[in-house]
Design brief:
homodimer, Helix Hairpins, 4-stranded mixed beta sheet, disordered N terminus, phosphoribosyl-ATP diphosphatase activity (chains A, B), PRib_AMP_CycHydrolase_sf (chains A, B), hydrolase (chains A, B), amino-acid biosynthesis (chains A, B)
């Protein structure tokens, strides 16, 4: 049994024997055996030692934030898998600390003068994976996974009003989200698929032909994978590799559309694999067995 | 010859015959023949009609922005290809209009009380592809392609200080950028490649084995592409498709690392293809010839 003082949790804390603790603000010296989860009992709430150490480190970092004259900093919520900017609000110190302890993106409402956790009414929480400060220490990224649409309008993100509308070739039906390249392509393919259902026979775009003919699509995926490998085996230049990889991605994404699989789901698989000590170990096990 | 009034460019404007113009703020009715570029001559600066129409539409949109008591809104610069949040600043109306006309991300400096264009000293401009407003109309995304590192420290983005530092399994050497899933994986693979050079022989991780043995790597890429196709051909469930696509991506990304090709370069290829009226047309031409 040991007692520590801690501004977030001033009660005395119990810790099971064997765990090493970081008590001071700066360090990250928690290295108790990974397989055994040790807990600090904070009043009636059980919280792992690791959380305690993270919050302790965060307190120190937050001391260095340049809060504005209202005690606020800009807080941007970003989808950890797709990179989509979900929403932007403001956070004070308590909002960031609440975000850290609850792992739900929490902001300070300037109009209501109170903390609010995104999702507290809609249940569409943004589940935090990491938090970053910028070089000036007055801007924060909440990197997280949303449970559902973030915008109160039901849109996936709050940014659906283009000012420039430059993509004249890309007629995205009822969806003008600020999409980055991969997701913009996904949206275009998805639109072609929707058009296909309503269409008479006639001259189809390449994407539509791929969407209709599984045999053509699969033969193209195999062919493009082959060509990507050849850029390595035959020592072709880097621009060929980038070009063939683009082909692999595009054709594979058409297959995802046929199967109704979102690229975000693929990213989630990748993230879960390499955060659970990695693809590498899994692959290594498979390859050894 | 026709004259219009326009707040950005109050001089009379000349337009070559045949082009149709949108004069009023709201519409987007410019549809002069795509192959022939028509120009408005704005004082001594030649600017295409399309720019004029975009700016005209933007003026109307900016009328609806909820600028704060200092006339500012939050402006977030995001990499159009990777989704990385590059930096965050503030913009007033003039900053947004300058961004639109110059196609370089421009902000309002609160400390110097003046406009500044990112890159005006470093030459690392952020070249604008699109601009989005959020649902509350008080937050702006500048979606663009950076010429080089955005941060004044030389870092790719300004967000390199993790508050949580949750990724204990991922030891990213001297690089703690706020990376989303695909780029986080790319960073891990790149780190394995760097370690490989310095390493004695011994038990290697799967990624390192792939990095060392091109034949193994290529056979895995072909095998994973095959398995992805089979999820369609043999009607396997969606989770299998997501999992096999993750395998394709991971192994293909190891090949990119071997060839020193960034996934961002691949995204650029994709964007350029489908913004030049699309992959589809290119593919369609190839397939017909």
């Amino acid at each position: 049994m040991m007692a520590v003082s801690y501004s977030l949790c001033p009660q005395s804390l119990r810790v099971s024997s064997g765990a090493r603790l970081c008590i001071s603000g700066g360090g990250n010296i928690w290295d108790t055996h990974k397989k055994k989860t040790r807990h600090l009992v904070c009043a009636s709430t059980e919280r792992p030692v690791k959380d305690f150490c993270i919050e302790s480190k965060a307190q120190t970092l937050l001391d260095g934030v340049k809060w504005d004259d209202k005690g606020l900093a800009v807080a941007i919520a970003q989808n950890v898998d797709t990179g989509a900017i979900l929403m932007q609000g403001f956070a004070n110190r308590d909002a960031v600390l609440t975000t850290i302890s609850s792992r739900k993106a929490t902001f300070y409402s300037r109009s209501r003068s109170m903390l609010w956790t995104k999702g507290e009414t809609s249940m569409n929480f943004i589940n935090i994976h990491d938090i970053f400060l910028d070089c000036d220490r007055d801007s924060i990224i909440y990197l997280g996974k949303p449970d559902g649409p973030t915008c109160h309008t039901g849109s996936e993100t709050c940014y659906y009003t283009p000012v420039l509308d430059l993509k004249e070739h890309q007629q995205v039906e009822g969806n003008k989200l600020a999409l980055t390249t991969l997701y913009s392509l996904e949206s275009t393919i998805s639109q072609r698929k929707a058009e296909l259902a309503a269409e008479e026979n006639g001259k189809s775009s390449w994407t539509k032909r791929l969407l209709k003919h599984n045999d053509l699509l699969c033969s193209k995926i195999r062919e493009e994978a082959e060509e990507l490998c050849k850029t390595l085996e035959e020592n072709e230049d880097k621009s060929r590799t980038a070009s063939e990889m683009a082909d692999v991605l595009y054709h594979a994404m058409v297959l995802l559309a046929v199967k109704d699989v979102k690229i975000e789901d693929v990213m989630q698989v990748l993230r879960q694999r390499f955060s659970q000590s990695g693809i590498e170990e899994k692959r290594s096990r498979i390859s050894q067995s």
